[in-house]
Design goal:
By secondary structure, this protein is an alpha+beta fold. It is 14% helix and 34% strand. It has 4 helices and 32 strands. Strands 1, 2, 6, 28, 29 and 30 form a 6-stranded mixed β-sheet that branches. Strands 3-4-5-7 form a 4-stranded antiparallel β-sheet, with no helix packed on it. It has a 4-stranded antiparallel β-sheet with strand order 8-9-10-11, with no helix packed on it. Strand 26 and strand 27 form a beta hairpin. The protein is elongated. The N terminus and C terminus are likely disordered.
Length: 511
């Protein structure tokens, strides 16, 4: 209602000012589209029931590691062992129920805490234990046939138990270890069993290690609630952040984005996910409240698809996000849910995925309550019979980019890339069988060649067709020439065998 002292002229002026202010406020508001276009919006997780490993005596040790690691040939799982530590090595094709007397790797005197496969050799694995030692093992082809007790080398340098191990992502034979003595040691496995470098900048137990793409930087989270970015060669602290309102548990580099992601707990005991700029740790870029549970959050980053997977310890959920260079930097996509709680997860390298099924990531969930390992495939739903180049760009290969001596001398190099097109196998369509009493109907199938997916394939197809047409024309010209030669030879033969009549002589009379 208008006040009594406002007349009609003033009323119209008042409406114009109000409308002008409202329109100006709308123009100043940031515009956002009602939906967001992404090829990973409908990614879903699928359990591979035929690939589960059952009846495994999984270790019940408490810690922030997964106790499981996978490569395209084997899966390694830390198990319970009396009087020492052990873990089992199983081929990926060995599914189903596991023999309780299967061979084990049992060279440690106390419980095994972590295992990691060498990224450049599928038959070499490292393990760390509570006995303050690190062992490097070589697995024979085809898997273990008897207990393996003699390692390739034993690394002794920590004075307390070793909880974390991590291979260098680009240099061969370099291994980083972290123990409860607040130290991070660098080993050159191929040369000696003496630590090459010592990183002693931590004041408490190191909780996680993560490398950037070329391995020149090392991000660590510590129990003293500090997040550090360290030079992995010299141990110099480049960036450091004391997180008072966010207790950091685990940290991970985000590929070439020059960013970090940390998982932890807020001051209100709710689980959080924070995104940082690796060159400026003053304030986080994004702060995401996940839930109010108490288990650790394990971050897994896929640099090829820019997807971040977050799995909780003690629950069966796997959340996945997509990262962008612009705001909002972190976009929630979906969630995989399972009623079975997970103790840890192993991840398959890119070269071991099923490219034909559009599988972009694969987890191996360690379910201690059911004594099984359950594989989970993250799939992009697509119907196509060609290789998906946008889902599978060139990824890190199994060949090292440089040697240990080159990296220690100061050389940095990105990992060697390889295409996954060789792993592509098109899915075979199912054939419908007629029922009993029905006759099979012959249906003419169209051409099985699929249309080109992009301009490059179209140009390649046009070039191939031009070459085929040119070859057919040459063959046709050659056949025409042969036909002309045959006609000339036939005419010559007819002329040579034709009888010649003498002049003045009647052939009929003479006959």
């Amino acid at each position: 209602m208008l006040p009594l002292w406002l007349d009609s002229a003033q009323h119209s002026t008042h409406q114009g000012l109000t409308r002008h202010r409202f329109i100006g406020r709308i123009d100043s508001m940031p515009w956002r589209p009602p939906y967001r276009c992404s090829k990973f919006r409908h990614v879903y997780g699928r359990t591979i029931s035929r690939g589960t490993y059952e009846a495994i005596p999984i270790s019940s040790g408490v810690g922030g590691v997964h106790g499981c690691d996978v490569n395209p040939r084997f899966i390694a799982v830390v198990t319970e062992a009396g009087g020492g530590g052990a873990f089992i090595i199983l081929p990926l094709s060995h599914h189903g129920r596991i023999d309780p007397l299967c061979p084990r790797v049992c060279g440690h005197r106390r419980s095994v805490l972590d295992v990691k496969w060498n990224p450049f050799n599928d038959y070499v694995i490292a393990s760390c234990s509570e006995d303050a030692t690190v062992c490097v093992w070589e697995i024979p082809e085809g898997g273990l046939r008897c207990n393996l007790t003699k390692p390739l080398c034993t690394l002794v340098g920590h004075i307390r138990r070793v909880s974390l191990i991590q291979w260098h992502p680009t240099a061969s034979g370099l291994l980083f270890t972290a123990g409860y003595d607040n130290k991070v040691l660098l080993w050159c496995v191929e040369e000696s069993s003496i630590p090459v470098r010592l990183i002693a900048c931590h004041t408490d137990v190191v909780l996680s290690l993560s490398f950037n793409v070329d391995g020149s930087l090392l991000a660590t989270s510590c129990r003293d609630r500090r997040l550090r970015v360290v030079d992995s060669r010299t141990g110099t602290v480049l960036q450091e952040k004391c997180c008072t309102n966010h207790r950091v548990n685990l940290v991970a580099f985000l590929g070439n984005l020059k960013r970090l992601v940390t998982t932890g707990v807020s001051q209100w005991n709710s689980r959080q996910l924070l995104l940082w700029d690796q060159e400026d740790l003053s304030e986080p870029l994004v702060k995401e409240e996940v839930d109010g549970l108490s288990g650790l959050l394990f971050p897994f980053y896929d640099a090829d698809t820019r997807m971040l997977y977050v799995a909780g310890k003690g629950d069966g959920n796997i959340r996945y996000y997509e990262l962008n260079n612009e705001k909002p930097f972190l976009v929630f996509l979906g969630e995989f849910r399972s009623p079975l709680p997970q103790k840890g997860l192993g991840t398959m390298p890119k070269r071991g995925l099923d490219v034909g099924a559009c599988e972009v990531y694969r987890f191996y969930r360690v379910v201690i309550t059911k004594s099984l390992i359950e594989p989970i495939s993250m799939i992009v739903p697509r119907k196509s019979d060609v290789f998906q180049e946008d889902l599978y760009p060139k990824t890190a290969s199994s060949e090292p980019a440089l040697t240990a001596e080159q990296w220690l001398s100061g050389v940095n190099r990105s990992p060697l890339l390889v295409s996954l097109m060789e792993n592509y196998k098109p899915t075979v369509p199912m054939e419908l069988r007629p029922r009993k009493g029905q006759k099979a109907i012959d249906v003419e199938r169209p051409d099985e060649k699929s249309p080109p997916a992009n301009e490059k394939e179209l140009r390649r197809m046009v070039t191939c067709q031009r070459d085929e047409i040119r070859q057919l024309r040459e063959q046709l010209a050659h056949r025409d020439l042969q036909l002309q030669q045959c006609e000339l030879e036939l005419q010559n033969q007819r002329n040579t065998h034709k009888p010649v009549s003498s002049p003045g002589r009647n052939d009929s009379t003479y006959a």
